[in-house]
Design brief:
- This protein is α+β, with helices and mostly antiparallel strands.
- Helices cover about 35% and strands about 15% of the residues.
- It is elongated and about 145 Å long.
- The termini are far apart.
């Protein structure tokens, strides 16, 4: 029984310190009883809670209010304070200070501002304090007292209060009690059935109504994970209800932190407490809660929950979250299911609010049952007597539930509420409640119901019934009868203030009742205790690793076999299986299998092995342990712990080494929680054994102990086997019946059991924590955390064989001077802390504990002494031989900076190297060393997989190409430990992912990183390898911060003059035939023997053209001579773009001239010295024009079309002012124009001059269409070009009005035409603007082009450099992923490739370039004016020239193009490549690489148009970032001159090794080998290329994905060329030559070298034969040219037909196809070869037709005249193409058998280009010459073939042949 109420208190208003403010404080007028109860002292501070918003006088009488505040005392007991407040008038006579108050009140701006003084009211509160929560009874009782007072009933208040304070009721048991307070009232109190279930009335339902499902779930998770929660509302009662509702949801967990449903205003600072809380505050104080940063605020009135940014509430684990959510929806909104029904059933009755409240709680009860299912199987019972001590094995619970990663459950299990739950509910023998039954018996049902909502709802309703019954056991009874005051009674003037009560009367009533109670016997209700059911054991959660490590029987078989081989001594067999076992051990099942198998080999706790067996066992144990987390949730470490002290080997007589000394380096051993769980598990086993009958003792594992789940079957078989909890429950039941002595004896037995286990564990811990060589203090370094309880070591690899452990420790760890005692001390402290914790928790006596503390240091010391002997002996074992370090070969001038550091090269995401899903040998991981040289980072080593063989693995990249370096910690494949590593990524698409060997100290690794960083970012450009090669690296000068003009110009002119003096004497020599000298050799006479090899760069020029005119100043003339040698100038001459002459003697016929205005780089530093400008523009105006453009890069001509005479100009983007001036001031300027306008005018004149310099401008002036008009005009025509709008994510450009069709389209009028064929005569005589300005859309915004202008703007959207950088980073990650893909998903590569948007950018560049090509081809000039004019502009301009001019597609022309557009026109190589320290932050931007990729795309589509091979492009891609050559350094010619690079000293003769220019190197190499030459080169002279640019037509360049691990990147030719492999060798007995086959691995061998293409092979063979014959071998190029010439002269069959070149040049549009053949006409030809497309790149031909190469022997016999085909008659005919297409010569074959006429490109073509089915032919008639027919042919040689579909026009070479063809066709038709 318990008192209904403990205290009754009357609290009134007392004036505050500031008199007259209307604010005061509460005063307790009276309290009953006046003395505190012994069992329940009076709670302090009650007056604050009566008026939480503060005590204030009020100008009007408010109605009475009621709420319940909750106070928590020091013992965590809750006191419910029911407060009923009413207002009484304040009378002046009563309160002398009131007059002041009233004045104050009058001044305050309140609604009734001027109230008569008598009208103030003061609050007074009646308070009931109780430990029971019966809200309605309190409300009724206080209401009754108030009613008696207000209505003036004739009932004694003292009696009522006395009765109230003496009323006692039962706490639980579902009894019913009627009480009366003696005022004619009656109340019925029902007590709940069980007190463990909370009582919630309607509070939960209300909470959901106020906040909604998602918000309440968030609050629920927040409360469980110990966050701070604050409720806001204007109603105090609602705050109390919300807090009560939230607590009811947490059942069966109890909230144990601060809980204040109503917080008074004076205590608001409590909100900044650091501990979690649930608090309610009135909304008035919302402002004060704003600055709380870590509090979740729930506004009940507004229905919102605000979670601060810094707070993360972990959500419920799926699928529980979604299941709970849908169950709550069904309860709260049952109509939701029926909302969509066509015929909804009649409205069902909704549950009452009280019932709904219970249903909501039932949902959460189910949730907890699912969350905590099986929790009893993870309880460790540590003591049974005198009181149960129970611990929860958290790790095992998480592991078996498969929720190790789950943030929510982890936090819940670590929380205080769960700790309380374990100690309260873990007890095995107690009263049980609804939750116990649910979690034990209903889990299976819940799992079955998961996907059936109606069954879930039924279950919820059943549970709700039970919860409702618990609160309302007698539902029928509600016979309350309590008087209430009349309506509006508070407004009537009360007869008198609340009277002072007579204390003595009340006290007398209380004393009477107390005396009566003492006499009565105590009513003790017997508790029904029982054994708590454990429920079904947890099902082992299926392995989550999925397919990769599926729990396959095969894997377990491998593990078992390997172990049996080891113990049978079959070491070779075991060695073969070991890699497979180590891989299998990633799976949990295999690890369990290993522990079980090893247990079988232990007899009497000991198993002595030989050295090899010991090694194998230790290797496997380490592999098992490496994936264990510090918690060991799968019990692997726990299962291995007894084994590591069992397996041992004899080192020498009396010295034994145990396995534990070799498996110490794992996190789990230094985790206190692991040791505690292990300790409690073992204690439980022993305690259980104490109480079991001896017969039962040798049964299987006790259920309470967490053994492997495989034990479950045994447990089910032997149901009588009792778990430790059952034993404990039985013992607790018997305990009261035992005698005192027996009890004492049991307690002692248990205590000594725990004590003996503690000693045992102190030993075990010292085994695993003391390192073998304690002098090295390794332990301190690795487990610095050993001092803290939460320590987690990040262990480093140790060799499993103890023999080499001594050497492998790093002697320079910084702890050399640490004493042994430090290690011992750390271990002793760790063990002592453990012992303290577990012994106090498990009730070990203090004497025993002291004894333990004395023992621990001795145990540790003893063990150290034992280890010393073991260590000493183990050093004598022969150490494991580490592989010898392979030294890499270095380039001339390359020096080693850091010698090899032993590392493991780990596999990255590229699968080929590691075997992967495609199979093949696992070359990686490889063991070797990393070397750092002045030029490269190089790894050399051998694969660790013993089955691969002795293959050398090399991976390297230039230091300068490093883009990202990050530290990683990895697990190496071999020894399976956590290991420090580095991941280096380079922009040459290499990735070195390395783990340092244990012998490499962290200092060495750090030194490596620092050196790497220093070499990657030298302080200035002189520190790069191109400059330092061969010399000792000296500190370069500091980069200049300010650019002072005069000194740099002075050095510049000095340089120029100096170089000019040298050149002036030889002007005419160089002019005769220009040989490109190397950078250092410019102007040096070429040695005669090399003369024939030099490629001529320009045609013969008249001496006058290059001679500086006499008008120049003498000093300038010297400068000019140097400039004239530059690539730009040579190209201007080739294009006939003007001469270098003064303005006086200007040749009027020339539209353009070369201006030396920038020779001192004064106008624009990033431009070359000589520029091409319109003839009419004066030099002095150029300065002004340049101001309108960014970086002063004004428009200059860089190329002119030889056919249409249109020019291509380039410039930087316009400055804003320039644009505005350009397009607004169209008319003549008014006299008073500003500077800006005038420069804009100059600019306009400049563009006008460009326009008028074009020859066709005069005719095209009238009736010209603008661009937009043109495109809309031709939109309707059939056929289409890819639109200019870019595909991909970045939105494309928009041109004019509706340029959906491409600007100039060859497909606008008919079917596609062979690329490069001349436009047909009627092709759109384009009437367009004379000049198009391609500008950035953003820049040209708002500019209206005037239709009368001769130029037109084409705004396009271009990507910025930062987008290129971002895209490149993603491309790198896609092509060279850092980590292996978890899922074998082929699409992930494609997806990441797409996300990189790299191909979209390539697409856009090609698209814009083709657009410009079209415009130039149609005769309009184009000015490309994008960004600053040195990135995208350069890319577009270079591509346009490459596509338009076949010269740039030669080796020499491409060099010239790069020198001119990229080097001279100032692409910022150093800035974009982040070459120096200054550029480190900006990072690498692959602008040039992107250009080369575009060239590669064009090359792939037109393989016959390029003289250079794909390898050449890859070579440049690699070396533009490698810094091996000086070519691609610095940002402009100006900077190169400043450094003295451009015209280097010519005096000293260069050594043959070091090439400083990449071009010189290419040239030298080309003489030796055809590696840069494309054998398929057969250009069409006039061809303009128009590549397809859609992303679907683009290929990922194999430069990004290919690698050769045999030799590293193949672009440093000297290093890549190993000794050639002889393919055949003579047998010694003179027999036939024996073929030597080789296996070629995809990512290992260089396919080109291992299997050269036919021509290279033949050229090599020729060279070899010549050498054998003793002749000097001829250069390959000469041989090749001779063969080609011979081929041409032979190729006129029958004296008819067109002269065919080696590769027929009339290849149609299908040239993009890769299988093209080299063949020859007559049968016995000298050379018939089949070629793969890109013999020098390493990609596989994508056409697949010719994928497999043919062997050399078949090359000759392959192309006999194809008699196998039925060729009845064949020959050459001209055929007219489709509409508007030209005549083409084709080779026709009449096939009578197949009844068809086939035609081919040329005679030896094997691929048919078209077929005319003779069945469809209607007639063959003589024809007439059509337009465009061959001129020389007789009219009678024409004939037409009419089919059902169309008419074909043919023309033979003469009349006779035409007649023959007609006859043959007629006969064929008549035969049919």
């Amino acid at each position: 029984m318990a008192r209904l109420a403990d205290y009754f208190v009357l609290v009134a208003f007392g004036p505050g310190p500031r008199a007259g403010s209307g604010e005061g404080h509460g005063q307790i007028l009276q309290r009953f009883p006046e003395k505190d109860w012994e069992d329940n002292p009076f709670p302090q501070g009650i007056e604050l809670f009566c008026q939480p918003s503060g005590w204030q006088l009020c100008p009007e009488r408010n109605p009475p209010t009621f709420f319940i505040a909750v106070l928590t005392d020091i013992n965590s007991e809750r006191h419910y304070c029911a407060c009923l407040t009413f207002w009484e008038p304040v009378e002046p006579s009563q309160a002398p200070t009131c007059s002041g108050e009233e004045e104050e009140a009058g001044e305050r701006p309140s609604p009734s501002a001027l109230v008569p003084p008598t009208q103030l009211f003061a609050p007074k509160t009646l308070v009931l304090v109780s430990r029971l929560d019966h809200a309605d009874v309190f409300r009724n009782s206080l209401g009754l007292i108030y009613t008696i007072h207000v209505e003036g009933l004739s009932v004694s208040l003292e009696n009522v209060i006395g009765n109230l304070l003496t009323c006692t009721i039962p706490i639980t048991g579902g009894s019913q009690r009627t009480i009366s307070l003696g005022a004619g009232d009656r109340q019925v109190i029902q007590t709940p059935l069980t007190d463990s279930l909370p009582v919630s009335c309607c509070s939960v339902a209300m909470l959901f109504r106020q906040l909604g499902i998602t918000n309440v779930l968030a609050l629920f998770c927040a409360a469980l994970t110990e966050h701070k929660i604050l409720f806001l509302s204007r109603s105090y009662q609602r705050l109390t209800d919300a807090c009560r509702g939230l607590l009811a949801l947490l059942f069966p967990l109890r909230y144990s932190f601060t809980y204040v449903p109503i917080l008074p205003a004076q205590l608001l600072e409590v909100l900044s407490t650091p501990t979690p809380f649930i608090i309610g505050v009135n909304s008035l104080f919302q402002a004060e809660t704003q600055e709380l940063l870590d509090v979740i605020i729930a506004d009940l009135d507004g229905g919102t929950v605000t979670v601060p940014e810094c707070v993360h509430i972990p959500p419920l684990p799926e699928p529980l979250h979604s299941q709970t959510h849908s169950a709550l929806c069904m309860v709260l909104d049952p109509e939701l299911e029926l909302a969509d029904l066509a015929f909804p059933p009649p409205a069902t009755s909704t549950s009452s609010l009280k019932m709904q409240d219970k249903e909501l709680r039932a949902v959460f009860l189910r949730l907890f049952a699912q969350l905590l299912q099986g929790y009893r199987w993870c309880l460790h019972i540590v003591r049974i007597h005198p009181e149960p001590v129970i611990r929860f094995h958290k790790a095992a619970f998480l592991g078996q539930r498969g929720l190790v990663e789950d943030d929510f459950l982890l936090k819940v299990l670590e929380g205080m509420a769960f700790a309380g739950f374990v100690s309260e509910r873990g007890v095995p023998y107690r009263t049980t409640d609804l939750f116990d039954e649910l979690v034990a018996n209903e889990v299976k049902r819940m799992r079955a119901d998961e996907n059936q909502p109606h069954r879930v709802l039924r279950h919820v309703k059943e549970l709700a019934e039970q919860l409702y019954k618990n609160e309302n056991p007698y539902p029928a009874v509600s016979m309350h009868k309590v008087q209430r005051p009349g309506e509006g009674s508070h407004l009537r003037r009360a007869p008198r203030p609340f009277p002072r009560l007579d204390e003595s009367t009340v006290q007398w009533i209380i004393d009477q009742a107390t005396a009566k109670l003492q006499g009565a016997p105590p009513a003790v209700r017997a508790e029904k205790k029982a054994t708590v059911p454990s429920g079904p054991p947890m099902a082992a959660i299926v392995e989550r690793n999925g397919v990769v490590h599926a729990n396959s029987a095969r894997r377990l078989e491998v593990v078992r076999n390997c172990i049996s081989y080891v113990f049978e001594g079959k070491m070779l067999e075991a060695k073969k299986l070991l890699p497979a076992v180590l891989r299998a051990l990633k799976g949990r099942a295999a690890r369990r299998c290993l522990t079980r198998e090893l247990h079988l080999h232990v007899q009497q706790n000991r198993a002595v092995l030989d050295h090899q067996q010991f090694d194998f066992v230790v290797r496997m144990m380490n592999c098992c342990l490496q994936d264990c987390t510090s918690l060991d949730e799968h019990g692997i470490a726990a299962a291995l712990l007894p084994l590591v002290t069992a397996f041992c080997r004899k080192l020498s007589p009396g010295v034994t080494q145990f396995a534990y000394s070799c498996v110490q380096e794992h996190v789990v051993w230094s985790t206190p929680q692991f040791w505690e769980a292990m300790f409690y598990g073992d204690v439980q086993t022993h305690i259980r054994a104490l109480y079991l009958e001896p017969a039962e003792e040798d049964g299987p594992l006790p259920k309470g102990e967490v053994g492997p789940p495989e034990k479950e079957e045994e447990e089910e078989e032997e149901e009588e086997e009792r778990s430790a909890l059952d034993v404990a429950s039985e013992q607790r039941r018997l305990w009261p019946t035992l005698g005192r002595d027996k009890q004492q004896e049991l307690v002692q037995k248990e205590e000594s059991t725990v004590f003996s286990q503690a000693i045992h564990y102190a030993n075990r811990m010292s085994y695993l924590l003391l390192p073998l060589d304690s002098s090295k203090s390794r332990l301190l370094r690795e487990r610095a955390g050993l001092g803290d309880l939460e320590s987690v070591s990040n262990s480093v690899i140790t060799n499993s064989m103890a023999g080499s452990m001594a050497e492998s420790y790093d002697t320079e760890s910084g702890f050399e001077d640490a004493e042994t005692s430090d290690v011992a001390g750390a271990v002793v402290r760790f063990i002592n802390r453990f012992v303290d914790k577990v012994c106090t928790e498990s009730g070990v006596t203090s004497e025993h504990l002291k004894g333990l503390h004395v023992m621990v240091p001795d145990i540790v010391q003893m063990h150290i002494e034992t280890l010393e002997a073991v260590h000493r002996e183990s050093k004598r074992l022969p150490p494991i031989q580490k592989p010898k370090l392979l030294r890499p070969s270095l380039l001339p001038g390359e020096q080693c900076v850091l010698d090899g550091l032993r590392v493991y090269l780990l596999p990255d995401g590229r699968e080929e190297g590691s075997g992967g899903s495609i199979g093949g040998p696992a070359l990686l991981p490889a063991e070797g060393a990393v070397f750092l040289t002045t030029y490269r980072v190089i790894f050399t080593g051998m694969p660790t997989d013993p089955l691969v063989g002795e293959q050398v693995v090399v991976r390297s990249f230039p230091v300068a190409s490093l883009t990202k370096e990050k530290r990683i910690s990895v697990q190496t494949h071999m020894d399976q430990f956590l290991q420090d590593g580095l991941q280096l990524r380079s922009c040459t698409f290499q990735l070195l992912k390395m783990a340092f060997d244990e012998e490499v100290g962290s200092e060495s690794a750090e030194v490596f990183r620092k050196h790497l960083h220093k070499l990657r970012y030298p302080p200035d450009i002189k520190g790069t390898f191109a400059f330092t090669a061969g010399s000792v690296h000296t500190a370069g000068r500091q980069p200049r911060t300010t650019k002072e003009k005069s000194p740099s110009l002075r050095t510049l002119s000095r340089n120029l003059v100096k170089n000019a003096k040298k050149t002036i004497s030889r002007q005419y020599v160089t002019r005769k035939k220009y040989n490109p000298p190397n950078w250092e050799q410019r102007g040096q006479p070429v040695p005669p023997e090399d003369q024939e090899d030099e490629i001529s760069v320009s045609e013969e020029l008249e001496p006058s053209t290059l001679t500086p005119a006499s008008a120049l100043k003498p000093s300038d003339r010297l400068t000019m001579n140097s400039l004239v040698e530059r690539a730009c100038c040579r190209d201007y001459q080739r294009l006939g773009l003007g001469t270098l002459s003064s303005s006086l003697s200007r040749a009027k016929s020339e539209p353009f001239r070369v201006t030396p205005v920038n020779r001192m780089y004064a106008i624009c530093r990033s431009y070359p010295g000589l520029l091409i400008v319109p003839q009419s523009i004066q030099d002095n105006t150029l300065q002004r024009i340049s101001r309108c453009y960014r970086q002063n890069r004004f428009p200059v001509v860089c190329w002119r079309s030889s056919r249409s005479k249109a020019v291509l100009l380039r410039s930087g983007g316009l400055h804003g002012k320039g644009v505005v001036g350009l397009f607004k001031a169209q008319n003549a300027p008014s006299p008073g124009q500003s500077q800006t306008d005038s420069s804009s005018l100059e600019q306009e004149k400049y563009l006008q001059a460009v326009v008028s310099s074009m020859p066709r401008h005069a005719d095209a002036a009238s009736g010209r269409n603008t661009l937009s008009g043109f495109s809309s005009m031709h939109m309707a025509s059939h056929g289409k070009w890819g639109s200019i709008r870019a595909g991909g994510r970045s939105s494309g450009a928009s041109l004019g009005v509706d340029v959906g069709s491409r600007l100039a389209g060859k497909d606008l009028l008919g079917p596609p035409q062979p690329n490069g064929a001349p436009s047909e005569p009627g092709f759109l005589r384009p009437q367009r603007a004379a000049l198009y300005i391609i500008g950035d859309k953003a820049q040209l915004k708002g500019v209206r082009p005037d239709p009368l202008q001769q130029w037109e703007l084409v705004p396009i959207e271009v990507f910025e450099v930062r987008q290129v950088k971002a895209s490149f980073k993603k491309l790198l990650k896609a092509c060279v992923p850092g980590c292996p893909a978890g899922e074998q998903n082929p699409t992930s590569y494609l997806r990441s490739l797409e996300e990189s948007e790299w191909l979209s950018q390539i697409h856009k560049l090609l698209q814009v370039s083709v657009l410009v090509v079209e415009l130039l081809d149609s005769g309009s000039s184009v000015l490309v004016s994008l960004e600053d004019g040195w990135d995208i502009t350069t890319q577009v301009v270079s591509l346009v020239q490459l596509l338009s001019d076949p010269y740039y597609r030669t080796l020499e022309g491409f060099r010239l193009l790069v020198e001119k557009e990229w080097l001279s026109f100032g692409h910022r190589f150093t800035h974009r490549g982040a070459h120096t320290l200054a550029g480190q932050s900006s990072g690498f931007a692959p602008i040039f690489l992107q250009f080369l990729d575009c060239v590669h795309q064009v090359h792939s589509q037109f393989p016959m148009e390029f003289e250079f091979s794909q390898f050449y492009l890859k070579f440049l891609s690699y070396h533009h970032a490698s810094h091996r050559f000086r070519t691609f350094l610095l940002d402009s010619d100006y900077e190169r001159i400043e450094l003295g690079l451009l015209y280097e000293e010519k005096g000293e003769k260069k050594s043959q090794q070091a090439c400083k220019s990449v071009w010189e190197y290419v040239e030298r190499l080309s003489k030796k080998t055809p590696v840069f030459y494309n054998y398929m080169y057969a250009p069409e002279d006039t061809e303009v290329l128009r590549p397809y640019s859609n992303v679907s037509n683009l290929k990922v360049w194999d430069f990004y994905t290919r690698e050769t691990l045999a030799e590293g990147p193949p672009y440093d030719w000297e290093l890549a060329q190993g000794p050639p492999e002889p393919l055949e060798e003579e047998r010694p007995d003179g027999g036939a030559p024996q073929s030597r086959r080789r296996v070629i691995w995809p990512c290992y061998d260089n396919r080109l070298r291992a299997q050269p293409d036919a021509i290279s092979r033949l050229l090599e063979e020729l060279q070899r034969l010549e050498t054998e014959l003793g002749r000097p071998s001829e250069r390959w190029k000469d041989t090749w040219d001779r063969v080609k010439a011979a081929q041409r002269s032979e190729a006129r069959p029958d004296g008819r037909g067109t002269p065919s070149s080696l590769l027929m040049s009339s290849v149609s549009h299908h040239r993009r196809s890769l299988g093209v053949y080299l063949q020859e006409g007559p049968v016995g030809s000298t050379l018939s070869l089949s070629l793969d497309s890109d013999q020098s790149s390493s990609s596989t031909p994508s056409s697949g037709r010719q994928a497999a190469r043919r062997s050399t022997s078949t090359l000759y016999s392959q192309f006999q005249t194809a008699e196998s085909e039925n060729r009845s008659y064949e020959g050459t005919l001209y055929k007219k193409g489709a509409f508007m297409k030209p005549w083409k010569a084709r080779w026709f074959v009449l096939d009578k058998t197949k009844h068809q006429l086939r035609y081919y490109d040329h005679r030896v073509d094997t691929e048919c280009k078209g077929v005319i089915d003779l069945a469809e032919v209607e007639s063959v008639t003589p024809g007439t010459p059509a337009m465009g027919a061959p001129k020389t042919v007789d009219e009678k040689a024409f004939f037409d073939v009419k089919t059902t579909r169309r008419v074909y026009n043919f023309c033979a070479q003469d009349v006779h042949l035409a007649q023959q063809w007609v006859d043959r066709l007629q006969s064929c038709l008549s035969d049919a």
